[in-house]
Each structure stands twice: as structure tokens, then as C-alpha cells.
Amino acid sequence: MSEQPHEPVPSPDRLASSLRTTVGALVRATRSSDRLASIPATVLDLLDRQGPMTTAGLAAGRGVRHQTMAATVKELTEAGFLSVGADPADARKKLLALTPKGTSALEADRRDRVRLLALTIADSLDEDEQRLLAQALPVLDRVAERIARSAPTADRSPVTGAW
Fold first, then answer.
1. DSSP character for 85?
2. Per-residue pLDDT of the chain (163 residues; tens, 9 = 90+)
């Protein structure tokens, strides 16, 4: 029995560059079905994952100026996606939280993205490719988890102007 030659392992730099490009393209492609614009959707997602926050907390979480976030918060509040309440720890601050309407809008976009991915996987990948993709997901999760654990906690300087 003869051994088949193994392909050389690509460099981590090459893998990282290709992974960044591919994941970015996948995210952009799935967002094409979104009903929410990307900036409001990102704010709703942050509140969904981290719970109620102040406008300043949201701005810091997204790396934007407070004024920029305040405009987005105003739009989302006026649309009925956010509620504003007092911060129990500091009555001078206002906490923003998702409303049922905001949660529904966010979940609808998520369902649409999953549906789009599922249809595309079923239509374009054979069974072996689907198994290969399933095997790759835990590896990608490990990479993402490691980055999240080792990410510096220092504040990034805010993005200036519009997002």
C-alpha cells in the first residue's frame, strides 16, 4: 500500500488571511437578507448578548463616540426597539434594554440568516462536504474562543464620525 503525499501545512499567516476574508464574505452575504440595517442590528445584538446598558456602555462596546451612539439609540427608541429605564446603581444614568419588538426584529434577522445558510448548504454541498464543514466548526469555535480570551481589555479609541 503506497502513501499519498501530504500537502504542506499552510502558514498561520496565510490561513489567517484566508479565514478573515472568507468569514467576512460569509457574514456580508448572509446579511443581505436582513431587514435591520447593520449598525442598529449590531446595537440590538450587543444588548441581547450583554443585557441592559447605558449609551456610554454601548458606545464603548462598539468603539464609537457617545454622540454617534446617541443618534442610533434615539432612532431605535423611536422605532420601539429599545426601552429606557433608570439605572438602579446610579439614578443619573439611563439603562437601555430591548423591547419585545426589538427582540422580535433581531430574532427574525437571525432566523433568516440561518435559513439562508441552511438552504445554501443543502443546495451547494454534498454529504462529504457537509460532514467536513461540521468537523471544522469546533475548530473555528476554539479559535474564536481563544481570541476572545486573549483580547486586550484596553479601551480602543472611538471611531470618529459615522460608523
1. E
2. 445 668 899 999 999 999 999 999 998 899 888 889 888 999 999 999 999 999 999 999 888 999 999 999 999 999 999 999 998 888 888 999 999 999 999 999 999 999 999 999 999 999 999 999 999 999 999 999 999 899 765 445 544 444 4
CB 49 within 8 Å of CB 98: no
Cβ(44)–Cβ(99) below 8 Å: no
Interacting residues of 37 by C-beta distance below 8 A, sequence separation 6+: none
- Grid cell locating 76: 431605535
Say which residues have a Cβ less than 8 Å from residue 115's Cβ, sequence separation at least 6: 33
48, 103 Cβ separation under 8 angstroms? yes
CA distances from 120 to 22, 125, 129 (A): 15, 8, 12
**Which CATH architecture describes the domain 34-150?**
Orthogonal Bundle (1.10)
Q: Where are the domains of the chain?
A: 34-150
Residue appearing with cell numbers 484596553: 154
Q: Is 44 exposed, middle or buried (0-12, 13-18, 19+ CB in 10 A)?
A: buried
Rounded to 5 degrees, what angle do the CA atoms 129, 135, 137 make?
Answer: 105
